[in-house]
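#struct-pred

JT: dropping the chains for the assembly here, can someone run the whole complex?
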Amino acid sequence: MIAQPLTITGGKLVLGSGEPVSGALRCEGGRIVALGDVTPQDGDEVFDAGGKLVAPGLVDLGVFAVDKPAFHFGGITRAALMPDQGPVLDHPARVRFAAQSGKPDMWVHPLAAATRGLEGSELAELALMRDAGAKAVATGRGWIADSGVMLRLLRYCAMLGLVVVTHAEDAGITGSAVATAGDVATRLGLPSAPAEAEALAVARDIALAELSGAHVHFRQVTTARALDLVRAAKARGLRVTAGVTPAHFMLSDLELVGFRTFCRLSPPLRQDADRKAVIAAIGDGTIDVISSGHDPRGPEDKRLPFADAEPGMAGAETLLPLTLTLVRDGVIGMGRAFELLATNPAKLLGVEAGRLETGAKADIAVVDSVRPWIVNSDKMAAAAGNTPFDRRPVEGRVTALFKGGKQVG
Amino acid sequence: MQSPTSPQAGRYPAGGLAFPHRDLTGIGQLARHEILYLLDEAEQWVELNRQPKKKVDLLNGLTIINAFFENSTRTLLSFEIAGKRLGADVVNMHAATSSVKKGETLIDTAMTLNAMRADAIVIRHASSGAVRLIAEKVDCPVLNAGDGQHEHPTQALLDALTMRHALGLPVGSDLNGLKVTICGDILHSRVARSNILSLTALGADVRVCAPPALMPAEVEAMGVTPFFDFDAALKGANIVMMLRLQQERMSGQFIPSPREYRHLYGLTPERLAKAEPDAFVMHPGPMNRGIEIDSTVADHPTCSLITRQVEMGVAIRMACLEVLTRRARGVAGWEAEGVAA
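RK: done, full complex below.
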């Protein structure tokens, strides 16, 4: 069903990396057809943005569940679904099904499992999954330990033109660790692994990216050393990109005190020096993508002793306001924030979205960037309220959301 | 008849302020004077336990549940004896024979124990933080009998009491200036963590000694000096505390072999000679004789405190149970709601 033509007036348009500019925007046939000094035409539905930001809908690269209420609350119009589902997205039929699962008011872009069952040994049917709708390939929650498998995977994906989204932790070092080695883990008696496990994995995969010519996207880079490696690889012109979730620039491992399982994440929260390095890397462009890692988990997975709890947090609702803290703190500008949240992930997925320009899909979020609210894990839209940001006052809320020019939230 | 109020009146805050905690989840929650308070309270039970008739009726009518989700012999027995000598009804729940094996969650088990109206629950669990998690869900005092690699507070208390007795220190005194070397699997040891917290709080100079694979990261942040070389760690030590090395860690993953471990870290009489001449030896048990400790050292009539530790364990656990149940028993001055955890 094609939506009625829509004109959004009186907003501040977020265009590219610059500061937002006042203007209007017209959509027809599900796409943006005009921007800037635009007046509504006869028969248009008119939406007055009332001076708020008119931004591209967020493109969330790497979620673990399709959780529409949370995505709509958070201004997310497209979510790239991790292959770690039950069953694993390692078969074309499952990919095709997942690609339809958001309709009609949400885009779900499945990420194909790199290996069968995500076991890290045999390549999955990547071309068939690509043609069934997979927008990229992912190693899932785990690292592919066998470098030979990883090299063959990257060469194949380079040929297919698929980005490989990897998890960067050397599994031999992390073992069963649930925390970053340091005084907090030592005091709490939690199994821990050195933060260097991440740099080791990143170093190997950068070398293999160079060898294979593939585009490797590290879904989460959370340590100073690994970020240095990514920075250097980019300087050499390699096709390497990096992402992070707000937890790793907002929180450090001190949050684990009291065995708070909502702070059990993968990779684990790092020491404060690494948290600051993540902020610096967002500021200098080393980090390309901020995503939610949305992984709603109920009490059966979280109300357990820390090491027995499952990792992950419900992040979709807090993705935008927590990213806006970086704008408020002067780390990045407003335009850059939406590049990190929408433009860059859309580019990685190869979808015509993530930016406001004529011809792009009309996925639009109207954002009140200073509206204050308090995160409340008991009242979240998400399937579960496992947020480490409970009770935190934040600013920035989506007041309207459009997918393909049709209001969905 | 033992007085339910402190025999050391004046040294500590009055009434319940001397120990304003509902639970004993770890040494980390305690201030120095609270540790000393429990040690001092235990002295009366050391005396009682040396009498032919070792029973009082202070806890008559109270039910104590020992919920052990991990196997234990000596700690379970010690808590059971402690509860019974105070007159309480003591019930033991073994994980091996409980519904935990049937998939019941820890929280459900805790709620079940709570509904049975226990007056105190003693918990051992294989996961760090599990005892605290249960303590948040139940209405009675919870005592940590060991949670994962986190804490084993009564072991640290009994060790401190043992040291005080061995050194002939008077009631009320701390361990200021004492040099204590803890050697073994520091990384996986809750006994080591609780002892580090308690001994540093009491003023001791603590060294920890382990091979790199068994040394926790940034352990010096806890106020101890780490050593890889056991001989260097022993120099000047007044107390040498050996930790048990789990058999499964000796088969190549952490340590090449038991005999190689003994070669570097076994407490032989020759090694012990590198410590102070009158140094004492401790071990929380059970021992791997011939691996971390030689029998001639473990069984030494004067320098080994190992059986004394077991004796002090009962007294410490009596003190903890008696203090933590004061509110429920309506002891004067202890009615106020304590500070949780």
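JT: nice. The mean pLDDT of chain A is 96. The CA atoms of residues 3 and 406 of chain A lie 6 Å apart.
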